[in-house]
Amino acid sequence: MKKPFIGITIGDPSGSGPEISLKALRHEEVFASCTPILYGDEYVLRRAMSILGSETPVHVLADPKEACDGVVNVVSPGALDEPWEFAKVQGKCGRAAFEYIKRAIKDALGRSLDAVVTGPINKEALHEGGIPYSGHTEIFADLTGTKNYAMLLTGGDIRVIHVSTHISLREACDRVKRERVLSVIRLADEATKGLGVTKPRIAVAGLNPHSGESGLFGAEEIDEIIPAIEEARREGLDVAGPVPPDTVFLKIVKGEFDIVVAMYHDQGHIPLKLTDFMGGVNITVGLPIIRTSVDHGTAFGKAGKGTADESSMLAAVRAAVSLAQNRK
């Protein structure tokens, strides 16, 4: 099979993203499995290369299809050509990170890329730079015109997809509605198949303690979650639940399920980050293009020092390659 073209956005220039993007290219498996193209200003990447002591040739591309092996392939939007500081929130870096993402999305929609892998961005820098999004997921959904999407995390023995993410806990409870839960169950089935599982076993977590204990601790399970599970079963999906949220992740680690549908951000993020913080991958499901990401922030404490860990970036590239090959 022809190697997929994978675009890697380097994230916020003041963080660890440029470094871990370059470090990922040092691994033979990356060029063996795909053709990687970095999306970030040449100026930014050359500064990171000097910190790493890298002498790999840089190939600046007008078109991703011009990429070749053995070099650092770069699409350089020219978004940041002035000095900046490492480990500091700066609006110009937030704007630059957004421009890298926007260009990669454009190329993926135009079929010049088979998938996009994103490096870490800083939400405060985005806002300081006048970019009105709360994170990558919202940027990708808006710029691709996608209404029905969800965040999926995978790491270690856990895969988890979320009914809601970047909203208050109070609003998250209000978002637990039959149609949304059913939609996320369908997305869980589709995405897990894309990751190579033929017939996914899906566990749906409850919202309330003990999944509501037959209505004693809340009615969301009875009114919204159970009807969604029953409809998904009628459609032929292998779905269990609602499983009490304090035991559902133990069950997936023991191999009883392939993916968990979590009701809100922390319900899914905490167990995954506890078990595999640096190897976690974030996947936006439901988009017309493939998008995976590191599951950590800009790591300002390590930025500009050459010590950042590229494990999550490598895992994100592997996931993007798997999804691209299975889609083909």
Write the layout of secondary structure elements.
Layout: E1 5-9, H1 17-24, H2 28-33, E2 35-39, H3 42-52, E3 58-60, E4 72-75, H4 91-109, E5 115-118, H5 123-128, H6 136-143, E6 150-155, E7 158-162, H7 169-174, H8 178-194, E8 201-205, H9 220-234, E9 238-243, H10 248-253, E10 259-262, H11 265-276, E11 281-285, E12 291-294, H12 311-327
Parallel strand pairs: 1-2, 1-5, 2-4, 3-4, 5-12, 7-10, 8-9, 8-10
Antiparallel strand pairs: 6-7, 6-11, 11-12
Helix pairs in contact: 1-3, 8-9
Short description:
It contains twelve helices and twelve strands. With 328 residues, the protein is of the alpha/beta class. The radius of gyration is 20 Å and the shape is globular.
The number of distinct structural domains comes to 2
Measured by DSSP, the beta-strand proportion falls in 15-25%
Let me know the CATH homologous superfamily of the largest domain: Isopropylmalate Dehydrogenase
Using the alpha-carbon principal axes, give the shape. Answer: globular
Low-pLDDT stretches:
none
Most strands sheet = 12 strands, mixed
Kindly provide the radius of gyration, computed on alpha-carbon positions and rounded to a whole number of angstroms.
Answer: 20 Å
What is the CATH C level class of the largest domain, in words? Alpha Beta
**Mean pLDDT score:** 95
Structure classification: alpha/beta
Strand order of the largest sheet: 3-4-2-1-5-12-11-6-7-10-8-9
CATH architecture of the largest domain: 3-Layer(aba) Sandwich
Distance between the first and last residues' Cα = 9 Å
Number of helices: 12
What level of helicity do the residues show? 25-40%
CATH fold annotation of the largest domain: Isopropylmalate Dehydrogenase
Order of helices and strands: EHHEHEEHEHHEEHHEHEHEHEEH
The total strand number stands at 12
